[in-house]
Amino acid sequence: MSTDMNDKTKSHRPLRGVQTIPPGQASAAARNCIAAALRRGGLQQQAKNLVAQPDQWRSQYYRHFVALAEASAAGGGDIAVEMAQSGLDAIRDHFSFRSCDGNEHPLDQAANMLLNGKQNGDHLLHSIVVKGSNVQEHREPELWYRGKQHHGAAIRSIVADWIERGIVEPTFAAVVEELQQNPHWMDLRDKHFAIIGAGSQMGPAEELLNLGATVYAIDLPKPAVWQRLIDICRKSSGTLVVPVMGDKLARLPELQSRESTTSSSDAVLSTIAGCDLLEQVPEVTEWLVNRVAPAKQLVLGSYVYLDGALFTRVAVATDAITATVLQRRGPWGRSPGGVALAHLCSPTEVHFVPAAARDTAVQRYSEIGVHSLWEKPIEVLSGGRYLERNEATTVECTSGTNSGRHFYVQDSIVWSQGPNYSFAKQLQKWRLLVAHRAGHVCSATVAPATLTESVMHNRLIAAGMLGCAVFGIEAFEVPSSKAIQTMALLWDLHSSSSLANPANHQSEINWPYDIFIQNACHGMYFDEAPMMQCVKSEYQCNVTIFLPDHSDCHTVAMAIQRTYVQ
């Protein structure tokens, strides 16, 4: 989750990097890309209004993401993928890459810039290896939950409770069962992962290193981030591969062996490691294509996040890199050096929820329970603005292989996250849909609401996260979420039941968005009876529940903020 800021408050770096056309217009660029997808879905008038009415974007943006989902459902799987491709194609017209000489380049040309000829090594990223010292032979699923580390039957019992409460989709039980039956799936000593945003709290770098994997880390050149990653690796059984620009490496004789072996060289390495995705699209692409696990299967995971309009730009940069890497290396399991993709979806997006989840939400809303003591009065006193009924919209498909099937569209967008966040997440889904249809393994299920630093730095959202248990929704600690998502990722890479792998199916998946829902751990967002936050008007209305965990008091204090949207 995130908070959003106006584009005008952001500092733009015009000298080099991914830019909107014209610079500083992230909102306009996002609207045009969404409009392109809407037009392909048959919503020409809505697309026209979206582009022509920029003043309504900040307060009404959620409607267009809902419309994208509904048009995809009405058109069927082929139309859904074509809409995604149309959105991606529009990126080229509204974003560009400015090189050091000030020239503007299309993003696809920028990503290929260092792949089409011999280049000076000082201008390329080079690899420095850091090896872990821990020897771990036995590997099995582990889950940190509510202050304890759990194994074996204890994990199965916890997951069964989650399924009963609607915290995870029922298919997650098979994830745990198959991983426990196949512990070799968790032996990653010969597996390679490139992690964009390796220092992210929600990224799986630490878990993968502890399982023996080789992790090629990509993150900003921040010494504290790299020192933490290096320290994690040293205590693990894995290998960390760190990117360093050639001109920096040439000045450091202690790293000429391309391996850091001492604490002093680790300290030096942390000061020169890293790269900037916004400014170094050509360098990062060249590294991933030519220097990262050549001729070996690679999982490329993206867990990068920035606030506001920067999230849009870094998502576009990551997409340009991803598209080129997929094109150059080919699909996982089908070509030497093949690539699989890994992402995390947020519970606070627009989702296609299973029919069972929709029915459960409707049933829970009609039931009288302890939650009703405050839920019903709040809804009535607010005139329906707060805690509205959570009932997914039913859309009937009218064409293609899904004709006659009903889909259930749930708007779980949290208004205060802002349009930049929603657009960046939609862009990621577009790439995954297109890549999956092209034969690439795409592991991208829904991750639960998690108490990360990026969430908790906003006091209002943090209070809501801590109080969401009052409504039956579970917000997870970071170690719990990371363990859950690592299990889901490894299952997707190995299980013949996974929808993430197109090779598991004799024909194309009828409904492409299913890859995001299988094994989803949404924390009960799909099944909750009332919507925790209703902000579907010209006003922002946040209902925040404060539950002081340091007190035995059972009093619930409710803070309501009503802020007019300019």
Percent of residues in helices comes to 25-40%
* DSSP strand count: 17
Give, in spatial order, the strands making up the sheet with the most strands. 4-9-8-7-10-11-15
Instruction: Describe the global form.
Output: globular
Pick out the low-confidence regions. Answer: 1-13, 532-566
Structural class: alpha/beta
Range of strand content = 5-15%
**How far apart lie the N and C ends?**
22 Å
Radius of gyration, in Å, reads 23 Å
* Nearest-integer average pLDDT: 85
| Total number of helices | 19
Major sheet characteristics = 7 strands, mixed
Walk me through the topology.
Blueprint lengths: L16 E4 L5 H15 L3 H9 L4 H19 L1 H18 E4 L5 E2 L1 H5 L13 E7 L11 E3 L2 E3 L1 H14 L6 H10 L10 E5 L8 H6 L3 E5 L4 H12 L4 E7 H4 L13 H10 L8 H11 L6 E5 L6 H21 L9 E4 L7 E3 L2 H12 L5 H10 L11 E4 L9 E6 L7 H19 L4 E2 L9 H4 L2 H9 L10 H17 L44 E8 L10 E8 L2
Helix pairs in contact: 1-2, 1-3, 1-4, 3-4, 3-16, 4-16, 6-7, 7-19, 9-11, 12-13, 13-16
Note down, in words, how this protein is organized.
This protein has 566 residues and is of the alpha/beta class. Helices cover 40% and strands 14% of the residues. The protein is built from 19 helices and 17 strands. The chain has helices at 26-40, 44-52, 57-75, 77-94, 107-111, 152-165, 172-181, 205-210, 223-234, 246-249, 263-272, 281-291, 309-329, 355-366, 372-381, 419-437, 453-456, 459-467, 478-494; strands at 17-20, 95-98, 104-105, 125-131, 143-145, 148-150, 192-196, 214-218, 239-245, 298-302, 339-342, 350-352, 393-396, 406-411, 442-443, 539-546, 557-564. A seven-stranded mixed β-sheet has the order 4-9-8-7-10-11-15, with helices on both faces. A three-stranded antiparallel β-sheet has the order 1-2-3. Strand 7 (192-196), helix 8 (205-210) and strand 8 form a beta-alpha-beta unit. Helix 3 (57-75) runs parallel beside helix 16 (419-437), helix 4 (77-94) packs across helix 16 and helix 9 (223-234) runs antiparallel to helix 11 (263-272). The chain is globular. The two termini are 22 Å apart. The relative contact order is 0.15.
